[in-house]
């Protein structure tokens, strides 16, 4: 028995499809931008593998001295801060009164050890509201195996 297919009747399914396409496009856009930086700094890692395995809202690239060099569009959407405002600052500008010392110590230790780590931290948006952020931070090494940058892949978590 052959089933006759008609027009899509559920707009929710179509809308979900469009959302997934949009996310995929944004990931490809981030991969393209980071690939250019990878070539420039001669990093030794696979960007696509790193990004395709994680759900994320924002990406922050810093120098070894933690100066922000690049953020993706998701950073602005998540924090409310423009790229122009963030560039040249340290990510600590997002921290505030409810950011715990334990979270900061974990980040400091992870950066000093120059190995990948995950942490959660309370940060603050431009409008002053706080958000719980899960960080996956990776040291980026050049072909000489020297850490030259750090990349943070960030996901906003619900505060409940």
TrEMBL record:
InterPro entries, sorted: PAS, PAS-like_dom_sf
Pfam entry (one): PAS_9
SUPFAM superfamilies: PYP-like sensor domain (PAS domain)
Domain of life: Bacteria
Keyword Ion transport (UniProt): no
Residue ranges occupied by any PAS domain in the UniProt entry: 57-155
Keywords: Chromophore, Flavoprotein, FMN
Record's keyword annotation contains Flavoprotein: yes
Alphabetical list of PANTHER family matching this protein: PROTEIN TWIN LOV 1
Annotated protein name in UniProt: PAS domain-containing protein
UniProt organism field: Algibacter mikhailovii
Taxonomy of the source species: Bacteria, Pseudomonadati, Bacteroidota, Flavobacteriia, Flavobacteriales
